[in-house]
Design goal:
The complex is a heterodimer of chains A (365) and B (409). Chain A has 365 residues and is an all-alpha fold. Chain A contains 15 helices and two strands. Chain A has a two-stranded antiparallel sheet with strand order 1-2. The mean pLDDT of chain A is 90. By secondary structure, chain B is α/β, with parallel strands linked by helices. Helix content of chain B is 44%, strand content 17%. In chain B, strand 1, helix 2 and strand 2 form a beta-alpha-beta unit. The longest helix of chain B is centred in the N-terminal third of the chain and has 19 residues. Chain B is globular and about 85 Å long. The mean pLDDT of chain B is 90. The chains are: A mainly alpha (365), B alpha/beta (409).
Chain lengths: 365, 409
């Protein structure tokens, strides 16, 4: 055995565990799914090939069409939101500030927590007597006081800045020292008005919004996004932003400082630097983040499974969940339809990545 | 002796001992059933079977039982004997993995309606292990405080609604008359009371049937002025949870509520009444919730499995089940049981659950051949109306259209 072939054998030996698991649990399973999608398989019978019929049945199933719309809307909205927020957060966390390690750790926490646990927490936050409704109730109760406080603060700030400027001092609208005085003054005024009975707490009934109900955001009469799905979008953005932020942080470290210096010399504002230096330089990272985001969101399953029957199925069903529910039923199940749906899902993801590769450059120009 | 020979000898010994020791596995629910069934098997099944050199083990499935059993059956690893819920019977019969019991087991000692629940096309697929029906379970203190008479077995829909409204008016906004679950599992009993049929001769469901509409309007109408409240509004997910809060006077539940209240609300004084009669038909409606013992068609020990099934449903085993208070056994002979004559709240509840099995329009709790998704349009309509999002007429219209689509698939 030559030295080279020996090295190759060693490499394959080390790769073997991963290759074997991939072959069994991916390639074999995938091939089986393709086969089942053309048969009448129901878990218990001997599969008989029936051609494209399962695909036609799936495409004419209203529940599949809802799942498809839900998955696409969820995927596009979540990927957009999480990419933008991850980029902004990375830019913020890339600064050298006191206690930055703490913030980096704190912001990363949601990412390492189990999605099932986070879903349960969100379910609790958004239930009928949950924290979300409680906060709205509190806001409505304290509204007169808070609005008075805000208005008076603004008023004092404007008066102070104008007085300073008249005296010839260069005072900015957001000067922190003046703002502190304004807030203090506003607190005193509000407290006085409260004691005098001019403004006070409002008597409001508890805010009673049902988030996990058959409620929809419609566009031209078509149901586009359900409120329960919106809650999942918020949750998913909250949990995935930190991981994607890490990729952006790594990318940011690689941008040459000289580019920012040149921009500074040209007199660029922070926003111009972000749009003209940071964003173009991060293009390869953005490509990766968007691709991973699209694949991850198209396959979203766990949140829907945990919420289960707490929300009407139509509002939450996604393609992955559709595949699951058609495979695991009580007794015989339309596994052929589930397989067909899974293949359609795979094709959509492939197409998405292809379109992205074809039309959006992944290299820094 | 070489190592190889020792290994071979060891394997041979293992194989022979396995052949001598037959094992019958029973697949069933986890949770409370696990403790109860293990004890029941130890007392009434193991001693007899051990004499024949057969061991019996209980194999509980945690989580969703139906999905778990489906996977085991598909993989040919399900137990020789297994729990078979009546509501998912059709899906499992379609797998051809359930052994028809005709000629293998005698059905005469068991309540007829229960045998019917497990029969499809003349083939009996399981023997009911026990059953439950629905009753009105009420908080005595709340009725006493409001000075309103307790719900009684003579109540009609109208008299019950009057009592509940009076109670709500006396006790104020913090208290509610009745816990209304937004699903067919409870509402269906009231629909049956009007004489409504789940499926017509063609297997289709008619939600526009005036009988169904009447029940729907009465049930959702209770939510008016918050006399009726959904479990989620009092931060729980079922009727027992509603009672536990001490703020809801009545819940529509079966015998399972007894153990729950004993453990979770030991100071709650409760009573039980039969479900109210429909004013027009003068009949009650009810569900038979039942789970049976079935035999795996691919078991290698059919005779032993049948013996185990007979022991599990024997008179002494059923007496034990009754006394544990979990469910009501399925033998007709237990009607005159001394336990039913006791005055404690749990025994009273058990008696009324037993009486409910053949009083009025009683149907097995099942979703038909298409499985549990059948109930979804009804559940969604109930939820939409009870939470005030839709009018009853509007919700029923949508439900019928969803049902037509579902059944047309």
């Amino acid at each position: 055995m030559t030295r080279k072939s020996q090295a190759t054998t060693t490499a394959y030996l080390f790769l073997a565990p991963f290759l074997i698991t991939s072959v069994i649990f991916f390639f074999y399973a995938f091939a089986r799914a393709i086969y089942y999608s053309f048969t009448d398989f129901n878990l218990f019978n001997t599969p008989k090939v029936i051609g494209l019929q399962p695909y036609l049945e799936v495409l004419s199933d209203p529940s599949f069409r809802r799942a498809l719309t839900n998955s696409l809307v969820f995927s596009l909205v979540t990927t957009t939101l999480q990419t933008i927020f991850a980029l902004l957060m990375a830019v913020v966390l890339n600064n050298r500030l006191r206690g930055m390690t703490f913030f980096r750790t704190a912001w990363y926490m949601p990412s390492i927590t189990s999605s099932v646990v986070i879903t349960l927490i969100f379910l609790w936050l958004f239930q009928r007597r949950g924290v979300a409704n409680y906060v709205v109730t509190q806001w409505q109760t304290f509204q007169p006081l808070l609005l008075t406080l805000l208005g008076v603060t603004l008023l004092i700030q404007v008066v102070q800045v104008l007085l300073e400027r008249r005296a010839g001092h260069p005072a900015g609208w957001f000067d922190p020292a003046l703002a502190a005085t304004s807030v203090l003054g506003a607190v005193l005024v509000t407290a006085l008005l409260n004691v005098l009975g001019v403004v006070g707490l409002r008597e409001v009934p508890p805010f009673d919004y049902q988030y996990f109900a058959d409620k929809w955001i419609t566009v031209g009469g078509a149901r586009v996004l359900s409120i329960p799905m919106l809650v999942i979008i918020i949750q998913n953005t909250f949990t995935t932003v930190p991981t994607l932020m890490l990729f952006f942080l790594a990318g940011l470290q690689g941008i040459p400082g000289s580019l920012y210096e040149a921009a500074d010399i040209d007199g660029a504002t922070p926003l111009q630097k972000l749009m003209n230096v940071t964003v173009p330089q991060l293009r390869p990272v953005t490509f990766y983040v968007v691709t991973v985001g699209l694949i991850g969101t198209m396959q979203m399953f766990d949140q829907v499974a945990v919420i289960g029957s707490a929300a009407p199925s139509e509002t939450l069903i996604t393609l992955a969940y559709y595949v699951y529910t058609n495979t695991f039923k009580a007794g015989a199940a339309p596994v052929n339809m589930a397989s067909a749906a899974a293949i359609i899902l795979a094709l959509i993801i492939l197409a998405m990545v292809f379109v992205q590769r074809r039309f959006f450059p992944s290299e820094v120009r | 002796m070489t190592i190889r020979k020792v290994l071979l000898l060891g394997l041979a010994l293992l194989a022979s001992s396995a052949a001598a020791q037959k094992t019958i596995r029973i697949t069933g629910y986890g949770g409370t059933d696990q403790t109860l069934l293990t004890d029941l098997i130890n007392r009434f099944v193991k001693p007899t079977m051990a004499k024949q050199g057969i061991t019996v083990v209980y194999q509980p499935l945690q989580g969703d039982y139906n999905k778990g059993l489906t996977t085991l059956l598909a993989a040919n690893t399900a137990g020789d004997v297994m729990y078979l819920p009546a509501e998912t019977l059709d899906g499992f019969v379609a797998t051809k993995k359930i052994l028809p019991l005709n000629g293998l087991v005698s059905t005469t000692p068991f309540i007829k309606s229960l045998n019917t629940a497990f029969t499809r096309d003349g083939k009996l697929y399981a023997i009911a292990k026990d059953f439950n029906t629905l009753t009105l379970v009420y908080n005595k203190d709340l009725f006493d405080e409001a000075g309103v008479a307790y719900p009684s077995n003579n109540d009609t829909w109208t008299t019950l609604a009057t009592k509940l409204t009076a109670l709500k008016q006396k006790l104020g906004s913090e208290y509610y008359g009745i816990c209304l679950q937004p699903n067919f599992d409870r509402f269906g009993a009231f629909a049956y009371s009007t004489g409504w049929k789940q499926f017509d001769s063609k297997g289709k469901t008619n939600l526009a049937d005036p009988a169904f509409v009447q029940a729907f309007n009465w049930y959702t109408g209770l939510a008016k002025d918050k006399v009726g409240v959904t479990p989620s509004e009092v931060s729980t997910d079922w009727g027992g949870g509603c009672l536990k809060t001490g703020k809801v006077a009545v819940a529509v539940e079966g015998g399972w509520v007894v153990n729950f209240l004993r453990d979770n609300a030991p100071n709650l004084k409760y009573g039980t009444a039969l479900l109210p009669k429909n004013d027009a038909t003068g009949k009650r409606g009810n569900f038979l919730y039942t789970v049976g013992y079935a035999i795996n068609a691919s078991t290698k020990n059919r005779a032993a499995a049948v013996k185990v099934l007979n022991l599990l449903t024997s008179a002494p085993a059923q007496q034990y089940v009754l006394e544990q208070g979990l469910a009501i056994p399925s033998r007709t002979a237990l009607i005159n049981n001394a336990y039913f004559k006791k005055t404690e709240a749990g025994a009273q509840n058990a008696r009324l659950v037993f009486e409910g099995a053949d009083d009025g329009n009683v149907r097995a709790f099942t979703f038909g051949p298409k499985g549990p998704d059948w109930g979804k349009p009804i559940n969604e309509a109930l939820a939409a109306v009870l939470s005030g999002q839709r009018s009853a007429a509007d919700a029923l219209k949508k439900a019928q259209s969803d049902m037509t689509t579902f059944q047309g698939r």
